[in-house]
Every structure is written in C-alpha cells, then in structure tokens.
Amino acid sequence: MTRIFQLLLCLAVASLSVSAAMANSIRIKDLVEFDGVRSNDLVGYGLVVGLNGTGDGIRNAPFTEDIMSNILERLGVNITGEQFRPKNVAAVFVTATLPPFARTGSTIDITVSAIGDAKSLLGGTLVMTPLNAADGEIYAVAQGTVIAGGVAAEGDGARVVQGVPTAGVIPAGARVEREVEFDFTRLKTIRLALREPDFTTAERIEAAINLTFGRAAARMLDAGTVVLDVGATRAISPAHALGAVENIAIAPERKARVVVDQRSGTIVMGEDVRISRVAVSQGNLTLRIQEQPLVVQPNPFADGEAIVLPRTEAEIRKEPGTGLAEVPGGTSLSEVIAGLNALGVAPTDMIDILKSIKAAGALHAEFVVR
C-alpha cells in the first residue's frame, strides 16, 4: 500500500507540474512578429459635411474653404468669385491601418479627427477621401457617416462637453483600392522577431520548432530573432509553414520588472522581482501657508481709504512615520507591498519608497516610471 501511495503521489505531482507548465505556455504567434507580415499606416485629408452648426469657422480655418471649393469644382459647380460662410462643414484628418494581405475590395476601419475649430463631428458625413501611404500612392478611399466619441451642449452662459466630440470612427469606412506588392510565396526563410527580445525565450522557440518538425528547421540568431527554414519544414508553402509554427506553445521567460504610474498611483510587478536586505523609514512633512487678509475701512462720512492688512498663517506639521523597518534578503516585492499596505502607506509614498530601494541597489528588477 505504501508503494502504491507513493506512486499515486508522484503521478499527482507530475500532473500538477504539467498543468502549471501548460498554464504558463503561450503560442508563438503571440510572442513574435513574422517577417513580411505587417500592416501599413494610411492618412488622408478630407471634409465632413452635414454638421448642425458645429463646423469650422471659415475665417479661422481658411483651408476648409479651399478643400470645399475643390470638391465643388470637381463636381462641376462653378463658385469663382462666390463667398460662402457655411458652419456645417469641417476639415478633418482621416487615418487608417492597412492590414497585411488586404485585398482589393475589402474594407477597413478609419478614424476621423477635426483639425480646425469645429466643435463637434456628431452626425456628420465624410466626403470621399483618398488615403495615401508613406510612398505617396493611394491605397484606399474613405467615405461614410461619422460616429463621434462624445457629445457637446452649450447655451448662452455655459458649455458642457463629455468625451471628445471632435473625433470619431467609421467602421468599415474605407475600401481598399490597391494591394501592397509583396510575394510571400517566394520566401525561402522567414524571420521571427520577438516582441520582447530574450535569449532564453528565443532558444525555447528554436527548440520547440525543431522538436515539432523533427529536424533543424529553426535557428536562433540573437535574443530577438529566430530564422525559420521553410524548406526544412517540408511545407508546400511559407503560409503552411507558419500555420504549423504559430500555434506551438512555449513558456516564455520574462524579465523582473516593476512599472509604476505616478499620476494614478498604480504599481504593477512581476513574480520574479526580489529585494535584498534593506532598512526602510518613511515619514511625511507637511508645510501649510494660508493667507487671510484683513480689510480696515474708515468711519462713515470720514475722509480716507480702505486699507488691506496682510495676515499669513504658516504651519509645519510632521506626521508620524512608519518607523525603521528591516526587509530581509530574498524577500519578494509582493510581500514588501503587502507589508507597506498593512502600515497604511499611501500609493504615492509607496512609489517613493520603491524609488529609494532601487537607488540603494536593493531592488533587483527593471524599474519603469510612467
């Protein structure tokens, strides 16, 4: 019975280890970027019409009048010598991302942003706008009704704005007119670029790919690049090779890192962060200065002027600190944070403490401040 119990215990431990490894495994497609499989940025300059009096002021944005004149002339409307001052049009920048392998006729989402003094794009319609890439060629044409990201209301004495009404989106608002010329089928080797370069992770990707195909199909070049030999995979095309590679799961290695946001007091840390033996003391010093001027007026019907006498109250107050606390070596940062929370340390003070621990050389992690 004892041997059976030991065997069952070993099987249970092995099952838990495999489950933990599978839980930490991530697909290669979520860790790397494939060479040649990339998107391209598009930008255009257009006009939004149909606004309810919330468009550009023509005098403050003369470029709106220029583009409106060009559009009307292309439509056969002669406006030479005419002066118009509409308030229902707005000049906008149109931006989009052309995804990899986008084909002619497919649609993409676009973002519309006002560049003049328009107050809102709510309810407006984007007139046909060509979208150019970095090479100056037109790859898509955008048009449609703008879905604004906010709302604005105003009266004679007040104005209320919620969100950003001067920017909006048009889902599937652009149609692809030109494809990016790239022959993916001719690639003999494909580079896998790690989003976060790491030698251990790159080695694990190489080993997992070679184990899958049973031969040396992948080779690590450096911490951020693994080269895949399409011929060694015996796939009929590079697309089939990547289809077999991208779903292979590995356990990536992460750097010990602490990220803090001073504006919101947010602290994010990894599980591998460690702190050496260090002593921490924290206290607050508050300086308060308040002005309370005193106005002295002359008696009624007497000649004289009112005199303002300055009165200042200054106070320096020192709050009791958390004392001198010693942190033993090898302690995880999560344990230190839990201890500081138990002492009632504010998030902003906690960030200052972490900065000081890092400056003392006791925090063994990359420290990122945003």
Structural summary, described in words:
There is one protein chain. The chain is an alpha+beta fold. The chain folds into three domains: 40-176, no CATH class; 183-250; 257-286 and 319-369, no CATH class. 22% of the residues lie in helices and 40% in strands. The protein has helices spanning 2-24, 62-74, 199-213, 238-245, 333-342, 347-359; strands spanning 26-27, 32-34, 40-49, 89-98, 107-114, 125-132, 138-145, 147-154, 159-176, 189-194, 218-222, 225-229, 249-250, 257-261, 266-269, 274-275, 278-291, 294-296, 307-309, 312-327, 331-332, 363-364, 366-369. A six-stranded antiparallel β-barrel has the order 3-4-5-9-7-6. The protein has a four-stranded antiparallel β-sheet with strand order 2-10-12-11, covered by helices on one side. Strand 4 (89-98) and strand 5 (107-114) form a beta hairpin. The chain is flat and about 105 Å long. Residues 1-20 form the signal peptide.
Radius of gyration, Cα only, in angstroms?
32 Å
The proportion of residues in beta strands is 35-45%
Specify the structural class: alpha+beta
The H/E string reads HEEEHEEEEEEEHEEHEEEEEEEEEHHEE
Proportion in helices: 10-25%
Largest sheet report: 6 strands, antiparallel, barrel
* Poorly predicted spans: 4-22
Subcellular location: Bacterial flagellum basal body
Organism: Sinisalibacter lacisalsi
Subunit structure: The basal body constitutes a major portion of the flagellar organelle and consists of four rings (L,P,S, and M) mounted on a central rod.
Protein name: Flagellar P-ring protein
